Each structure stands twice: as C-alpha cells, then as structure tokens.
Amino acid sequence: MGTIENNYTCLLAFVVFLTIVSYRLVLQRLTRCTVKPERSERPKIPHDLTFRISGIPIDWDREVLRKVLMAETNIADVSIKSLAHEANTDFQTATATLGNAPSNFRNVQSWQIRVPELPNTQPGAKQWLVVEKDFLGITTLYAPPPDDHKIDIVALSGLGGHAFGSFRERKGTHMWLRDSLPGHVTSETDGKPMARVMVYGYESAVAKSKCMQNIEDLSTTFHNSLLASVGASPTRPIILIGHSLGGLIIKQSLITMSRSKIPDDKRLFRSIYGVVFFGTPHDGMDISSLIPMVRDGPNRFLIESMSRMNSQILSIQQRDFHRALGSEGDSEVFCFYETLESPTAQEVDGQWRMTGPPTILVTKSSATHCRPWEDGTEHMCAIARTHSEMVKFGPHDPEYKNVKERIKGLSRRAVMARRHLQTTTAKWTKSRIVEDHGLS
To answer: Which UniProt keywords apply (predicted)?
Structure first.
C-alpha cells in the first residue's frame, strides 16, 4: 500500500513539473511576440546636428561659446567647428555640432539666446545670438589673420540643396570647405592659409516650394550679399564655386555686373578672377523626374528654365557669359562633371524619395560648356560621383585631391595676377604724375 502511494506522489510531482516547464515555455514565446513590435516603436537614434550661430561678440573664443550653448541646450556634447569674424560687422559667426541631439531639435529651425554678461565685460545694450540651421545668405567658415588674408572663396549649393549640408560628406560630419580647404589653399611664399572661405545659401526647394524666383532674381540677391560681404572696394581677388543651379546663379551675376554702370559693381566684377563649376547645366539638365514634384507650383518656371530641351534662357546666358568674362588671361574657368547615374525622384506613399530609375542628370557636354581655350583636361575634370554627391568629400577622399589641387593653383595664380595688376597700376600712376608735372 505504501508503495502505491509513493508511486502516486512521484507521478503527481512529475505532472506538476511538466506543467511548470510548459507554462514557462509558453510565457517566453508570448513575451518574445510582444517585444517585437516594441522594437520598431523605439525612438530613433539621435543624430548630430550642425547649426550656424551668428551675432557672437568679437571677444568670445570657442570655449566661451561652447559653455553658453551647453547651458542653453542642456546637451553635453557641443563642438564648435568654426569661429570666424564676419566681414564688415562687429560680430563673429560659428558652426557648431550638437552631438546626440534629442529628436525635438530636428524640428527647430532657429532660436535666439540672450548674450549673457560675462565677468570682466562692460554692460551694454541687449545682444542676441541667433542659432539656426538654414544657413541662408553668406556664412564665413574660415577667416585667416588680416595680414595673411589674400583671397576670398565663395561657394553656392545647387537645386534643392543646402549651403552647408550639400558640401558635407555623406553620413559624416566632415565638410571640406570648412575642414580641409583652408589648410590647402596656402601662400606660395610662407605656406600659411590665405583664403577666407564662405558659403552662400538661398531658397531652392523643389517640392512644395512657395518661392517663385527665377535665375535672375536669385542672382540679384547673391550679387547684393556678395557686395555687402567683400565691401564696396574689394582689395583681394575672388573665386566663386557653383554646384548645379549655383553655377547658373554665378554666371547671371557676372553678366549683370559686367554691364553695370555702378562703380561698386565694376570694382567687384574686376575682383572676380576664377569660377569653378560642379555639374552646372550650362546646356540644360534632365528635369523629367522634377516636374511631377513641382506640379503647378510657383517654382515651375525656374525648373523648366533648366531643361536640356532647347532652353533659350540658358543659351542666351551662355553667350553673354563668354562675352562678360573677356579674353584669355583675364580669368579662369574650371568645370567638373559627374560620371555616375543619379537616382531620380519617385513618389512613394505620398512622399518623394530618390528611388526612381537612375540617369545622368547633367551630361558631360552640358557641364563642360566652357570657353575654347579651356577645353582640355586641365580645366575639365571628371568626378566619379552622382550629381548630388560630386561635392561631398571625406577627409582623405581621392576625388577631393583633384579638386584641391586645381583650386589651390587657381588661388595662387589669382593672387599673382592681382599683385601684377597693382604693380602695373602703380607704375602707370607714377608716370602720369611725372608727365603732368613736367618732372624727369
């Protein structure tokens, strides 16, 4: 009898054990099933964001600005990437990266920070820092010391681009105009950085744009901004860099300045020595995937004026541009062209994505529509990139090496040409004084 009871007890214990094990297995499966949807609903990983800060007091350094931004944003990872005196103002401009910025910062376009009264500073009127990420207008990325400053370089982004983001490496923070070019454009005599480097931003969105400006309107705004930045009497040569639509804006600005009777415009025009084009559609581009994005928006005329299908506007502009620049030796033009097909725009679930059939947006013949004496490999160079990525370079990018060498050489020749012009002018002025006064 005792043996039967013991067997029964063992059997019951075994059944209970199996029940517990089965319950745990089922619970684990249910837990795994409920966790999967939660993974897709997790908040997005924060990204580094780059902002422009303007209105910075002239006596602030990077550390002071960094501490102010840290206190204002409650973000510990704040890096001041550039700090430069903004021309013809009493303030500095900076670019700053906010590391691991919360997602709510991605939706913020701009805000203001009251300039705090720091120790050992004189109290005065209220001043404000303006923090924003549109980068509209002129932004100085680097300015050498006044004694070393010999040339100005200004870069314009393209259609649907961003003054800063268009020139930043893909999936990285390196921006070659800010982080590499200043150290490579150096004086031939002492090897010191000699170029002030600036970018110019303007409204150029394609989809849902509310802007109805044409190329001439955009060029007028750029012309005025450039004049305000370099001053009415520029003493240094200027090199302009244009990507895509930015190149067309540069061309129209030069045409307008060459025809102007205003002394300030004449002086500014004479200061511009070189132009570097990246994928500029001198003879038009493929806009077939852009028209559905624009629909009947106010910027449709701008997009259609860039078409490669018999654009009369571009044909006239090209003719006038060649006349404006003058003869060989007065200036230099370089043209870079893309060799990889670009994905085109395609509407997916109501959103426009670059997932359409790939194509060459700006052909080699359109991108290199330069002057007869500049049709060799020295002035026309391929870049093995798509249209948008042809101005995005990493720290050790082999494509950047070709660009760097041409811009450096162009800059040094521009400085030499300006020095020669000043010497010639001084000699001519001296000879006229001698003649007028009858001196020997």
So the answer is: Endoplasmic reticulum, Membrane, Mitochondrion, Transmembrane, Transmembrane helix
Give the pLDDT band of residue 375 (cuts 50, 70, 90): confident
**Contact criterion met (CB below 8 Å) for 91 and 53:** no
**Predicted pLDDT of residue 380:** 95
Q: The tokens 């009497």 sit on which residue?
A: 233
What is the 3 state secondary structure string of 344-397?
Answer: EEEEECCEEEEEEEEECCCCHHHHCCCCHHHCCCCCEEEECCCCCHHHCCCCCC
Secondary structure letter of residue 329 according to DSSP: T
Gap between the Cα atoms of 246 and 253, Å rounded: 11
pLDDT for the residue numbered 92:
97
Name residue, tokens 């994005």. 293
* 15 sits in which H/E element: helix 2-40
Hey, where are the domains in the chain?
Answer: 39-133, 135-422
Instruction: For residue 284, give the nearest of 125, 388, 159, 101 by alpha carbon.
Output: 159
Q: What is the DSSP letter of 429?
A: H
- Mutual angle of helices 263-271 and 215-230, in 10-degree steps: 90
Kindly list the distances between the CA atom of residue 391 and the CA atoms of 114, 144, 163, 184, in Å, as whole numbers in the listed order: 36, 23, 12, 17
HSE-CB at 203 with a 13 A cutoff on CA atoms is 13
Q: 215-230 vs 245-259: helix axis angle to the nearest 10?
A: 70
Distance between CA atoms of 244 and 249, rounded to whole angstroms? 9
Tokens of 12: 């019951």
pTM: 0.83
At 413 the three-state DSSP class reads helix
C-beta neighbour count of 409 within 10 angstroms: 15
Task: Quickly list H helices, 55-175.
Answer: 62-73
Q: How far is CA 84 from the centre of its chain?
A: 17
Q: Are 195 and 151 in contact (CB under 8 A)?
A: yes
Helix then strand count (H, E) for the chain reads 12, 14
Chain length of the chain: 440
The domain made up of 135-422 has a fold known as Rossmann fold (3.40.50)
Mean pLDDT of the chain, nearest integer: 85
Rounded Cα distance between 185 and 334, Å, is: 16
What is the distance between the alpha carbons of residues 41 and 39, in angstroms, rounded to a whole number? 5
